[in-house]
Design a protein that fits this description.
The chain has helices spanning 9-41, 45-75, 82-94, 96-109, 118-146. Helix 1 runs antiparallel to helix 5 (118-146). The chain is built from five helices and no strands. The protein has one domain (3-146).
Length: 148
């Protein structure tokens, strides 16, 4: 059923390595998100901004790598894998709005001329919640398909 994910043994190894790397990146994302929260709550705005800049870089690179990989998997799927292909496309589509909000958040709050205002923490908490849901879904569903 998921043959398109594993065209060759080499692809399996490559996908397994990606899954391990992505899981490690998830841990780094969580670590830096908590560093931002901690610094902000201590009113250490410069430190919070420094951690936010690092979080932005990690998040954007991670999302781009996943998007490219998922796109390639969808592109290489055989027609008999239509159900799986639809599920992958739906997953990518469903995160579009969250990604847009995430990008706008980073664009606004990583700009040094914008303060980490009273809405910052509320927006950050909402973004962290959305990312936790995505990470849980990825690791419990998509990654298990890729990393057999």
């Amino acid at each position: 059923m998921f043959e398109f994910l594993f065209n060759r043994e080499k692809d399996l190894t490559k996908n397994s390595k990606k899954v391990r790397r992505w899981k490690a990146e998830h841990q780094s994302l969580a670590k830096y998100a908590m560093k931002v929260v901690d610094a902000y709550d201590k009113n250490e705005k410069n430190k919070a901004r420094k951690h936010l800049d690092k979080l932005q870089g990690l998040a954007l690179n991670h999302l781009m790598d996943e998007d490219v990989t998922f796109y390639e998997l969808c592109k290489n799927a055989k027609s008999k894998d239509e159900r799986v292909l639809c599920a992958m496309k739906e997953f990518r589509r469903s995160f579009t709005d969250t990604k847009r909000v995430l990008f706008h958040f980073f664009i606004f709050y990583t700009n040094p001329t914008n303060d980490l205002d009273s809405m910052f923490r509320q927006k950050l908490d909402a973004i962290i919640g959305a990312l936790v849901k995505r990470i849980e879904f990825e690791e419990n569903n998509l990654y298990s398909l890729i990393d057999h």
